[in-house]
Amino acid sequence: MPKIRLTAAAVERLRPPEQGRVEYFDAALPGFCLRVTDQGHKSWSVFYRVRGKQRRLTLGSYPAVDLADAREEARAAMRAAERGEDPAEARKLAVMAEDAAARETFAWAFGQYDRRRISTRRPRTQVEMRRPFTGTRDGKSLLPGALAKWGGRPLRSIERREIVDYLNEIVDRGAPIAANRAQVALSAFFNWCIGEGYCESNPLHKVPRRAPEQDRAHVLTDAELRAVWRGCERQGGPFAQLVEFLILTGQRRGEAAGLHDGEIRDGVWFLSAERTKNHQPHALPLPEAGKALLASIPEIGRNRPRYFFTLDGKRPIGDFSGMKVRLDEAIAAQAREDGVAAPAPWRLHDLRRTLATGLERLGINPEVRAAVLNHSKTQRLGITAVYSRHGFADEMRRALDAWAEHLREVIEQKPRPGNVVALAEARG
């Protein structure tokens, strides 16, 4: 262990050894040294004894820490050792305290929430769940996300008043619904943190919504269903065919859009748990009209799996909002030609609600309706252990065929008595 007088000039002149490392001890302050590695890295250390044991404390790298500061820290460490204190242990405890403080921040807690809860959801859901925290990716957010406001703050220090002020600011910027969404997201986050022991209370508990929301309980009338279907026939193409499929089956738009031939066996659409919103597998017997619709869709390319609702054959269609605007234009144009009123503003999800209401009006029992819609088991009414042994496949097929027959009558405006038979079979 070479011993030299460490000066600024001497430290600068020291060159890396051919291999390994060399420690140069200071002749003026025994125990203080400079370590030089074969990679050219230089760092300061001090050796001392406390309670009969030799310890080593790293003081920092050169030149980030210069000679004068390193020597002063070495002296301070030696004085602490003389008092019976262990500066290395004190440093370790300080680092642990800093780490603990970092783990208590809003940003750290959100990182855990994101990893354990958000990242397990579908990609689209992940984007929606993160937006109140991160803001919109394209920079068009009305306000920074919650992480920008409180990311470095201790989670438990965030008070109700400042969150409410933040939500009110979003409302004042002209986005009351976005404020409601942020409130729901933040409340869910704090409730999760309570369960994990990161905080003791939810600052949004009993805070009323910032703005009233329009009831999204639109059920399309028969006239509106006919207008939508006629508009789909007018427009044609993958999106219009998807809407027709949604009208016939009442399934979720994202799940239906991703339908491919590998999921259909013997007239049944098998959805894996990874493809469903509630993470429960779903087997849906397709109505005859649904199978005929899929059979009429021309194949695009020779990609496998073969997506039914696609523009290029390689991936399912997206941009539902943009396509919906164009479809509404076709629906309005067709309604004018037919001399009828265009449907009231509607959403794709309304088709799911419309089918559920329609099945109820056709006398289909709640268990079968819930099975068709793939509601979670906790949402299904009256289902007992029998359900685990009986998937209502026949009942679902008859129910959807009865609904398709009702749709045919609505579209053709020709009620047929034969539908009574279908209803009787569906009711079982």
What is the spatial order of strands in the main beta sheet?
1-2-3-4-5
Order of helices and strands: EHEEEEHHHHHHHHHHEEEHHHHHH
Tell me, what is the CATH class of the largest domain? Mainly Alpha
Taking the sheet with the most strands, its summary is: 5 strands, mixed
State the CATH superfamily name of the largest domain: Intergrase catalytic core
The oligomeric state is single chain
CATH topology group of the largest domain: hpI Integrase, Chain A
Number of domains: 3
- SS-based class: alpha+beta
- Spatial gap, N to C terminus: 93 Å
Give the percentage of residues in beta strands.
5-15%
The second-level CATH architecture of the largest domain is: Orthogonal Bundle
What sort of overall outline do the alpha carbons produce when their principal axes are compared?
Answer: elongated
**pLDDT averaged over residues:** 86
Query: Unreliable runs, pLDDT <50, ≥5 residues?
Result: 378-390, 416-428
Radius of gyration: 34 Å
Overall helicity = 40-55%
The number of E-state strands comes to 8
General description of the model:
This protein folds into 3 domains: 3-98, Double Stranded RNA Binding Domain; 106-196; 222-427, Intergrase catalytic core (hpI Integrase, Chain A, Orthogonal Bundle). It has 17 helices and 8 strands. The chain has helices at residues 8-13, 67-82, 87-103, 106-116, 123-134, 146-150, 160-172, 176-196, 222-235, 238-249, 253-257, 288-296, 320-338, 348-361, 366-373, 393-412, 419-427, and strands at 3-4, 21-26, 32-37, 42-50, 53-62, 264-265, 268-271, 282-285. The strands form 2 sheets. It has a 5-stranded mixed beta sheet, covered by helices on one side. Strands 6-7-8 form a 3-stranded antiparallel beta sheet. Strand 2 and strand 3 form a beta hairpin. The longest helix is centred in the middle third of the chain and has 21 residues, at 176-196. The N and C termini lie far apart (93 Å). Mean pLDDT is 86; it is low at 378-390 and 416-428.
